[in-house]
Amino acid sequence: MLALLLLAIVAGGYDFWYSYEEINEFQDDNLKSMSALLEQTIDIETSGANPLCKNRMHFETDEDDGSITVDVIL
Questions:
Q1: Which of 4, 59, 60, 72 has the greatest CB tally within 10 Å of its CB?
Q2: Quick one: 27 and 52 in the same domain?
């Protein structure tokens, strides 16, 4: 009985660690995709020479949550 409990704890720990690594990789890929999309959408170098200039980009989405608003601070 003790061996089965130990095996379950080890398997649960490994499953948690594996899932944690996978979700971190998934989030990193999503952030890279969003930054690539923003880089293609706006021209950061010509959008303003003022370092305090703030651009607001608004993206409509098909999801139920609504839309995404991104503030680009140069």
A1: 72
A2: no
Return the ∠ at Cα 25 (arms to 7 and 57), rounded to 5°. Answer: 150
Q: Determine the pLDDT at residue 36.
A: 78
Q: How many CB atoms are closer than 10 A to CB 70?
A: 14
* pLDDT tens, the chain, 74 aa long: 999 999 999 999 999 999 999 999 999 988 888 877 777 776 655 555 455 555 666 566 666 666 666 666 65
Residues 37 and 9 grouped into a single domain? yes
**Distance from C-alpha of 13 to C-alpha of 49, rounded to nearest angstrom:** 51
Are 53 and 73 contained in the same domain? Answer: yes
Structure tokens at 70: 């991104």
For residue 54, the enclosing domain spans 46-74
* C-alpha R_g of the chain: 21
